[in-house]
Amino acid sequence: MLVNGLPSDCISADDRGLSYGDGVFRTLRLRKGRPHQWSLHFAKLHHDCLAMGLDCPAADLLLHELRQLSATRPAAVAKIIITRGRGERGYAKPASGKHTRIVAIQPEPEFSVNKYQDGIETAVCRIKLGHQPALAGIKHLNRLENVIAASECRDAGLTEGFLEDGQGRLIGGTRSNLFMVQNGALFTPDLAYCGVAGVQRQRVMAYAGERGLKCSVTNLSVADLQAADEIFLVNSVFGLWPVRKFPGYLRTEFPLSNRIRNYLEEDETRS
Amino acid sequence: MLVNGLPSDCISADDRGLSYGDGVFRTLRLRKGRPHQWSLHFAKLHHDCLAMGLDCPAADLLLHELRQLSATRPAAVAKIIITRGRGERGYAKPASGKHTRIVAIQPEPEFSVNKYQDGIETAVCRIKLGHQPALAGIKHLNRLENVIAASECRDAGLTEGFLEDGQGRLIGGTRSNLFMVQNGALFTPDLAYCGVAGVQRQRVMAYAGERGLKCSVTNLSVADLQAADEIFLVNSVFGLWPVRKFPGYLRTEFPLSNRIRNYLEEDETRS
């Protein structure tokens, strides 16, 4: 792990990342030190830093640190955290200050092939996402809603769960973006009020655009999902999982999901 | 600063307090190592830990650490942070794990006497608080809304600002709880959907109860505030500030606010 470029596993206990969750992060896969989809991940990090008023480190610096930590590993998962650094007491952003940059590497988790081939079982989480348009879409460090939702799923023995807002609009998975397929067209939730707009969501939308498939960003309800031909979840660590089952829904064929999964994986091998 | 009882200013960079804001905190005043209103602060910390499924450290242990750090200081402000500790990757709460306990001391900030005597100027913040009943009231580490709101106030040259939810209901200040006085009765916002239920709010409600003053927990709008006889904000560091002015409101006499401020301060001297 590198903290501000130096080998360390420690950050200052008065870092605003800890005090207030005042920062952003990225999680991505690497092969022999080369990050997958780096240009998209960096663009998203840069976007999120800008949205939070944080200086974003240079892409070359981050790339160098990722390589330094993982060049000898065939496969790994990296986490990059940028916080607003140490702060005087008080919520207001310091007028100036040195941001904290953390680059950490972990072994790539292993996921059962069944999740990809047979699809996963999900349910709708009890916790509902609050609306905060000022922070929606950003992968910031205020993630207690995800912690509660993911804990619900784990306790229920489920791999993933669907998150709704308080108005019954689906937003995504606990750690993933959601798509549904109907009559060959794709639909994905509008993230203007909550949720995280991830890199793999962007890539699925690009896939659709390149092939002339319609992909609508819209409001989706549980009833919409129950009528779907296919549902799948995407993130940058597991890739794409089709949904086999949730209450009121059972599918065993995922033709478009599988094509999109191949695209996401092939493209990553080339990158 | 003590981290898990040992002198340190560093926490593990994979602490869930940093990764997800997965923890709670308290800020309180001390005189020669003795915390003000310790029983209420500890009860609130214990309540918040319980609500988050965190083990709360023993009161005696925390009290010992506070004294250790501040016994020689005539006045200080302490911050206590309890996080879910280091975690494997992933949002779900670890089945077990050692929590992180941070006790830090800072000099007491000095506030101008004018703020207490003449009252402060405020405005309504542009950012609106999102609803999250699962976390409302708890002083957890997901505080980006407060960071944005406090930065707005600082940039506008204001000491404090009022926070509303998306439905135009007032919730509090950026770092304080809000009360309004009308015809001798007190009113304070309902915090069932957002906001932090602080110790000084509890104390003002206790003051009202002891004296047979009516104190209603209710929905309040900006129009309600504009028609108030008095408005004041409370927290455990600055105590009580009357509000002199905000758009559509100007008051120069704060008789009940002053009596309550005396109560909060006197009581603290005795504690």
Describe, in plain words, how this protein is organized in 3D.
- The structure is a homodimer of 271-residue chains.
- By secondary structure, the first copy, chain A, is of the alpha+beta class.
- Chain A has 2 domains: 2-107, 2-Layer Sandwich (D-amino Acid Aminotransferase, Chain A, domain 1); 113-270, D-amino Acid Aminotransferase, Chain A, domain 2.
- Helices cover 31% and strands 30% of the residues of chain A.
- Chain A is built from 8 helices and 17 strands.
- Chain A has helices spanning 16-20, 38-52, 59-70, 113-117, 144-155, 199-211, 222-226, 255-270; strands spanning 2-3, 6-7, 10-12, 23-31, 34-35, 75-83, 100-107, 120-121, 124-129, 162-165, 170-173, 177-182, 185-189, 215-218, 230-235, 239-246, 249-250.
- In chain A, the strands form 3 sheets. In chain A, strands 8, 12, 13, 14, 15, 16 and 17 form a 7-stranded mixed β-sheet that branches. A 6-stranded antiparallel β-sheet of chain A has the order 2-1-7-6-4-5. Chain A has a 3-stranded mixed β-sheet with strand order 9-10-11, covered by helices on one side.
- In chain A, β9, α5 and β10 (162-165) form a beta-alpha-beta unit.
- The radius of gyration of chain A is 19 Å and the shape is globular.
- The two termini of chain A are 24 Å apart.
- Chains A and B meet through β3, α1, β6, β7 and α5 of A and β3, α1, β6, β7 and α5 of B.
